[in-house]
Fold this protein.
Amino acid sequence: MKVVILAGGLGTRLSEETELKPKPMVEIGGRPILWHIMKIYSYFGFNDFIVLTGYKSHLIKEYFLDYYARYSDLTIDMQSQSVEMHKTRTEPWTVTMLYTGADTQTGGRLFRAKKYLEKEPFMLTYGDGVGNIDIAKLLNFHKASEKIVTVTAVQPKGRYGVLTMDKAGLVESFQEKPSDSAWISGGFFVMQPQIFDYLKNDDNLVLEHELDKVAQNGKLQAYKHSGFWHPMDTLKDKIDLTDMWMTGHAPWAMWM
């Protein structure tokens, strides 16, 4: 089964990094978050990826073109202009990179991958969020639901501390960043080819708007994930994720 990753947005809320690179190439511990996402799927045996690029797409292409040399030991003979590869550290991945437009919205991007996906179910996620989702359980849940789309629902930790107080303002409890009660989309979708009945070749087509139509037709199911999930929307998110990785407490790194 193919895994599609949306990797074409501007990432304006992370402008400190995304002025120079696309958001999926922002690094966590020296590796792009895109790599971390792909490792999650690869851990469960899914190694066929389609990366939908847009903003600064050439940097994503260059990363994978240089991947073999980047993570291999090699000897360069400057006189003979030869390169000898030694120990390699490559992944069992097939990566198709599709340029889907600089300003195209998510629905338009996915539509442009139709010819690669219209004959079988596939998975899709955003290129800016990681989690310890059990992909095998997610797939089994999707198959049992018999819906067109399954979305992984998550309850992110709140951004601020919460006070519980009486009418006089006396604080009874202080909770530092508790989980929000609302379930939100965490990406990590599973989709049937029928999703393309809702899409068209339109740069302004927003996938999330079309998913609302799928929901209205009773064809959208949520897989509730109560484990770890974290987006990388801001510089603080990047710092938090990097700290987790560098201290060896990265829950999404199930392959470690």
